[in-house]
Amino acid sequence: MRALSRLGRGTLLALGMSLAVVTRSGVAAADGPAIAKEDLPPSEPSVRHDRWYGWQPMLVDAAASAFFVVSAATSREGGPGPFVIPGLVAYIGGGPIVHGFHGRAATAVGDLAMRLGLPLVIGAAAGASHQCSSAAAPASSEPCDWLPEAPQGVLMGMAIAAVADAFILSCVLRLPAVYGRRDYRRRFGAIVDALDAGEDLPCVDGARFQWTHADVRDVAHAIVVAAENVKTGFSVYNVGEAETPTMRARVDEIARVAGRTPRWRETSGSLPDAFMVLGSTPGNLVVRSTRLRDELWFTEVTDAEERLRDLVAWCRETRQRDGAV
């Protein structure tokens, strides 16, 4: 009974009517701290947040698919099988019912319109187009016989609608350049190697280039926060450090934590690939993560000193392992 209660009333009612296995894109979840109500700012949030329930309409569409597959396997003489009607009911009504039980009436109505409209309009049109394009006599004045291809077109439209439903609750995260442990590319590794070896750091135009980065642990936490907090509609958030320093300032901080003094060498020529981030570019790669912080109350789980210490340690460990200079 406890397991059933976790499914939620909307899911249970929808599953009672149903069972399109449709691949859903969503936000990957990982183990991490959730945002407790007592940790939220006292001011009223500007958007509504709920637990992500996108897996519930996924189950409904999977149930609808199962009905269609079983119906096709048990049909006789090319006619519809006995489970076509339950499959249609689950496909058309399941998703809207789930949204409705979560108090999203507008989303439920929009989902219902999409599930009815896309299969009929896009699906039937695709079937007609396919039949017309394969006609043996293009000069014939007879109208295209689209009806034999309509079921395929309708199924295609249903699949498109089911996939599109994922975007009703989808949250897209734009990730920055990520560094930290298990970074096989050893981001900043060549710079730490040069600092430890007492070598010059070549740069162009004072290494004033700016590029937003983030520690891998903070990126993982941002994914968890986005997965556990959903707002109505499709949303896109940038992930990245709160302030983006110049590469020179960033390297100076890395050197301080590493216990080294950087030796900068200005050059007008091209830089080695490992030091391209210290060169000059037409523009900066800076993103603002203000919306993620304001709407989903994201904060880093690491501090600046911890991030730099971990970065330097990882670069040194991998240098010994990989045999870098």
Description of the structure:
It is a single chain. The protein is mostly helical and 325 residues long. The chain has two domains: 2-169, no CATH class; 172-322, NAD(P)-binding Rossmann-like Domain (Rossmann fold), CATH 3.40.50.720. The protein is 49% helix and 7% strand. It contains eleven helices and six strands. It has helices at residues 2-7, 9-17, 55-74, 84-101, 105-133, 150-166, 189-197, 216-228, 247-258, 290-295, 304-322; strands at residues 171-174, 177-179, 200-203, 213-215, 235-238, 263-266. The protein has a two-stranded parallel sheet. A two-stranded parallel ribbon has the order 2-4. Helix 7 (189-197) packs across helix 11 (304-322). The radius of gyration is 27 Å and the shape is elongated. The N and C termini lie far apart (61 Å). Mean pLDDT is 76; it is low at 1-48.
